[in-house]
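Q: Convert this sequence to structure tokens.
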Amino acid sequence: MNDQQFNRNAILAKSPPGQRSLFDHLQDCLGIFKQLKIALPALPRCAGDTFFWDMLFLAVYLHDWGKACSGFQQQLQPDGKRWGERHERFSAAFVALASLDERKQQQVGRAILGHHKTFDKLRELRIRIKAQEDGILDLDFIRAETSFAQQIEDIDKNYIRFLKNQLPDVSMRFHPQNRIQTQTIQFSQLQDPLDILLDFWLKKAPESHSQVFWLEMLLCGATKMCDHLGSARMENIPVLTQDDFQFMQRIQPYVHQKNCWQTTGHAFLTAPTGSGKTEAALGWIQLQLAREQGRVFYILPYTASINAMQQRLAQILTPEQSFESSEL
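A:
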């Protein structure tokens, strides 16, 4: 059976409501990946690795392959029982398909393993039996009734082959610069990534000030972002441009506002209510974005002030950059 005849909806990533096939969900997530490259082009430099986008592309495409396990698919059924495993455990094993050196393979694998649970939480799930509220003991992770090898044996191999065969087309659509090649492996050769990847991090974790630490944190965080926004079916990541600040030309700034508008880097402003701190902040943001694109978090203390500020910004920013709802 060729890929054109293959039922790409046979394996689900999401259960009803909002049912979504695994392949469609992966494409949703890769759509966010493509937008992320536009919104945050400096990520590879921040991560200190020119292969960052290639590694992230691989992590996003592989991150849910473990959902092709029969136990996960049965769990999605209306009367399905809880699987007792984590799909990330099996997804991460497929990094072996990539022709990468061992270090980069492990970094991609850890990004996949960590896209739902923290590593500390994963360690807890590995070593203890968790008692559920109803008193039934639940076996988590590697203490599940079936071994890693048995779960891989029961995975939908045809669907996995389909996903692998789609990689060239998916690369062309979402990341044509992809430099990672795939290699042929046997399902029986796949190794349980928990001991290989998780133990390495927990026992030999890089220092928080090291470049390797930031590479892995950014890689894992970006994988989560693509998964979460892809699950929400977002179509784009809004990006502020200089055109969005044209309204600033109509403002005659006070001295404290002008000082903010001319400050690069950190700034701390104290001013009375009604003195134009918002305009001062927006001018400061404009200057920072002129130097390098990034993300802006505008934080306010109360829900009422947040809603009022949203309405105000929605009026002055271009429609594409403003939120649709005025309520939080």
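The chain has two domains: 12-231, 242-321.
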